[in-house]
TrEMBL record:
InterPro entries: MFS_trans_sf (IPR036259). Residues 1-25 form the signal peptide. It is found in: Membrane. It is a multi-pass membrane protein. One of its GO terms (cellular component) is membrane. It comes from Hymenoscyphus albidus. GO terms for molecular function: transmembrane transporter activity. The keyword Transferase does not apply. This is Uncharacterized protein. Keywords: Membrane, Signal, Transmembrane, Transmembrane helix, Transport. The chain crosses the membrane at residues 41-63, 70-90.
């Protein structure tokens, strides 16, 4: 329960989970700034989610075949971070922030399944079963925090 791997994995998952929650929360605002109707704005959220899903599936497949996690996690963190920097700078026009949503989606949905796999793999690496239960509980807490922050 006091293993640094458990805490680092929980912190990384928390950051990725908050990014995933922000996509749902901020997409409508960003798309309304582009002047689209509500129906059109809803349709335009679909590509953001598709990029994330496809990126997550492909990198999970590649990470499983190569049996390596960090070459996929590190670039995903950097890509997601770039998207957050674009949002932080509040660049104009709003289409740039819409592009940032794609970066955040890709980076986030690449990370989340790989963190889950890395967490499961560490079970045999001397981390106690209670430590894994502890992590799973914290991951659920992350999702609760996401709901409280964005909805």
């Amino acid at each position: 329960m006091f293993d640094a791997r458990i805490w680092s994995m929980t912190l990384l998952f928390f950051c990725a989970d908050m990014s995933a929650g922000s996509l749902s929360a901020f997409n409508p605002t960003i798309l309304s700034q582009l002047g689209w109707t509500s129906h059109r704005a809803q349709v335009m959220t679909i590509p953001v989610w598709i990029i994330g899903i496809v990126g997550g599936l492909l990198t999970s497949l590649l990470s499983g075949r190569t049996n390596k996690r960090w070459p996929f996690i590190l670039p995903a963190i950097l890509i997601s971070l770039l998207g957050w920097i674009i949002h932080y700078l509040h660049l104009s026009p709003p289409s740039i922030r819409y592009f940032a949503q794609f970066l955040i989606s890709f980076g986030t949905f690449v990370q989340m399944p790989i963190y889950r796999v890395a967490h499961r793999e560490s079970e045999g690496a001397g981390v106690s079963k209670s430590g894994h239960g502890f992590t799973a509980g914290h991951w659920e807490l992350c999702e609760f925090c996401e709901l409280e922050c964005f909805y």
